[in-house]
Amino acid sequence: MTTVLLVRLSAMGDVVQGLGAAMALRAARPPWRLVWVTQEPFAPLLANHDAVDRVIAFDRRGGLGAVLALRATLRAERCDVALDLQGNWKSALMARLSGARDVVGMAAAWRQESMSRWLLRRTVACAAMPHPARAAWELAKAVAPDAPYCSPCLAPQPDELARERAALAAIGVDAGRPFDVVVVTDPADARALRPGVVAARCAAGGRPVVQVLGPSEAALAPSAGAPALRHGRGEVRRLIALGALVAGAGGEVWGPDQGASHVLAAAGASCRIAFGAQDPRRTAPPGAMALVHAVPPPCAPCRRTVCKHRLGPVCMEFAAGEGVEVDVGLPAS
């Protein structure tokens, strides 16, 4: 039996986008065993996924001891192929430490740290715009040429759905009727929706609106005008359940290009993802609607998470109804 190791350590949205590789390999080579290594906070996302046979959680704060322990664990898996989905030194090292005979990653132009390609056995070139979901597909095809493109998909367990439905009911929201979700993240991140934009969405009227805040926003006060749903540390799978409930009710998610939005989109929710100076063709979730300004800001394109503009991330200010849809250019699933 062929065993394939997939290495995508972080971040949450990119781990989700990389799922397409596992799904494509499962579709093309059902008997193959697929093993995934990722950082501990993101491992629950992959639990019980039909395309992943085993998830190995890596403690990035564990120092050399954690690396050596991971090496032993990976060697015991006897991987035939290792796919570096991330494209940096750490992910390439993990792929190489597995002992796989074939260690594959994207070519320099697609890598976060181009020189890390020297740790690989071979690289894959692609003339398209670099995108994590596209990279996942290209790497899947490198070992299974007939692998189809698959958009990442996440599904909750029945008990997870029940608990999230009850959590919504506790804040006065009926998950059986259409409702919208606004993803609220730390405004210190340049990609986050600005507080004024969140407030406007919460006060827009029409369908009920729920603000969802993660563990990084524990100290952040939600905007007035809409109930807040707080997800704590270790509760990342609640996003999968929430996304499935939004999809089932015919609601919509409005959020930034950050991990929570990607999880909600992969769970089936209809998503509008706001981009300021960022280029949605490089990172937007497959299937989501990318919104940009009709006239791009002068600092576009930008890939910073810390804004250097003297007035701050003004590019993320979107007035009601503002935003132009963008075709991200990914293949249809």
Indicate the topology.
Layout: E1 3-7, H1 12-28, E2 33-39, E3 54-58, H2 63-77, E4 81-84, H3 89-97, E5 102-106, E6 122-124, H4 132-143, H5 158-170, E7 180-184, H6 195-202, E8 209-213, E9 228-230, H7 237-249, E10 252-256, H8 259-266, E11 270-274, H9 280-283, E12 289-292, E13 324-326
Parallel strand pairs: 1-2, 1-4, 2-3, 4-5, 5-6, 7-8, 7-10, 8-9, 10-11, 11-12
Antiparallel strand pairs: 12-13
Helix pairs in contact: 1-4, 1-8, 5-7, 7-8
Search tags:
6-stranded parallel sheet, Rossmann fold, 30% helix, 333 residues, globular, 9 helices, 7-stranded mixed sheet, 2 domains
Q: What is the name of the CATH architecture of the largest domain?
A: 3-Layer(aba) Sandwich
What string gives the helices and strands in order? EHEEHEHEEHHEHEEHEHEHEE
Order of adjacent strands in the largest pleated sheet = 9-8-7-10-11-12-13
Strand content: 15-25%
User: Which stretches of 5+ consecutive residues score pLDDT under 50?
Assistant: none
**Number of distinct helices:** 9
Q: What best-fitting shape do the alpha-carbon axes yield?
A: globular
By CATH, the superfamily of the largest domain comes out as Glycogen Phosphorylase B
Mean pLDDT, to the nearest integer, reads 94
Q: Estimate nothing, just give the exact number of structural domains.
A: 2
**Which class do the helix and strand fractions yield?**
alpha/beta
Largest sheet: 7 strands, mixed
Helix content: 25-40%
Rg is: 20 Å
